[in-house]
Amino acid sequence: MTVDLEQLSCQELVELVTGFVEGALAPDERERIERHLDTCDGCRTYVEQMRQVIELTGRLTLDDVPPEAERALLEAFRGWRAS
User: Fold this and answer.
1) Per-residue DSSP letters for 25-83?
2) pLDDT, tens digit, 9 for 90 and up, residues 9-42
3) 17, 53, 55, 59 — which has fewest CB within 10 A?
4) Is 63 exposed, middle or buried (0-12, 13-18, 19+ CB in 10 A)?
5) What is the Cα–Cα distance from 42 to 54, expressed in whole angstroms?
6) Residue 32, number of CB atoms within 10 A of its CB
7) For helices 27-39 and 10-21, angle between their N-to-C axes, nearest 10 degrees
8) How many angstroms separate the CA atoms of 51 and 43, rounded?
């Protein structure tokens, strides 16, 4: 197996962050992310924030989300998908 030694960009990290945090990436991709995090404070902060979001949202129930927040989120996602 050949490991891609090319430096991972911040944008690539953002695209892979969920798989990284959930432990779902191939070992070579995980290694690329870890090398990037060794040198990028901004991405280290971003990954930590994503870990916190995943941990906190895993505890939410539908009753925890006010109807106005649900509407706002659905509207934002619809707009995101359209762009």
Assistant:
1) S-HHHHHHHHHHHHH-HHHHHHHHHHHHHHHHHTT--GGGS-HHHHHHHHHHHHHHHH-
2) 999 999 999 899 989 999 999 999 999 999 999 9
3) 59
4) exposed
5) 18
6) 22
7) 120
8) 12
Helix axes 10-21, 41-57, angle to 10 degrees: 30
Q: What predicted TM-score, i.e. pTM, was given to this entire model?
A: 0.62
Name residue, tokens 């971003």.
46
What does the alpha-carbon distance between residue 20 and residue 39 come to, in Å, rounded to a whole number?
Answer: 17
Name the token pair of 71: 């509407």
Distance (Å, whole) CA 1 – CA 74: 42
